[in-house]
Amino acid sequence: MNKILKVLEENARYTNQEIAVMLGITEDEVAQEIHRLEEDGIIRGYKTIVDREKLSDEYVSAIIELRVTPKRDLGFDEIAEKLAEYPEVEDVYLMSGGYDLALLISGRTFKDIALFVSQRLAVLDSVISTATHFVLSRYKEKGVPVYLLPKDERRSVWL
């Protein structure tokens, strides 16, 4: 993998100057390579990983498994693109195994998620069935620990 990509995946906030020092190249080379990677569509964007547990806003997320009927000559692409347009849908994946597509969605409440499934997903012609799994805790997201248990300062006693 491109060394600059590896560094950016670790922390996208590194400056070009910091990356140049880490990799032993010039700042201009870093800037040119990042620009090329963005232009070629290899770098698709930059996102912040937010620990939503620490916010006061209500937030619920769920993973939804979908079994769908693919369209002739389009396969799963048409339904996947349609699902990706919903603002609640964060991720859409084509899967192998017992279901066809997996969605990661978010809403303010469990009811919001339930209404999305019943009123927007289940009514689509291509959708055969859904299975919704609510996310109860996040421990690691995009390779970053987001939920760490507080350290217990008490000593263990072995009898």
Give a verbal description of the structure.
The chain has 159 residues and is α+β, with helices and mostly antiparallel strands. Helices cover 31% and strands 21% of the residues. The strands form 2 sheets. A 4-stranded antiparallel sheet has the order 2-3-1-4.
Q: TL;DR of this structure?
A:
31% of the residues lie in helices and 21% in strands.
Layout of strands and helices, then pairs:
Layout: H1 3-10, H2 16-23, H3 27-39, E1 60-68, H4 77-84, E2 89-94, E3 101-107, H5 110-121, E4 127-134, E5 140-141, E6 144-145
Antiparallel strand pairs: 1-3, 1-4, 2-3, 5-6
Helix pairs in contact: 2-3
Could you name the key traits of this structure?
single chain, 159 residues, alpha+beta, 4-stranded antiparallel β-sheet, two-stranded antiparallel ribbon, 5 helices
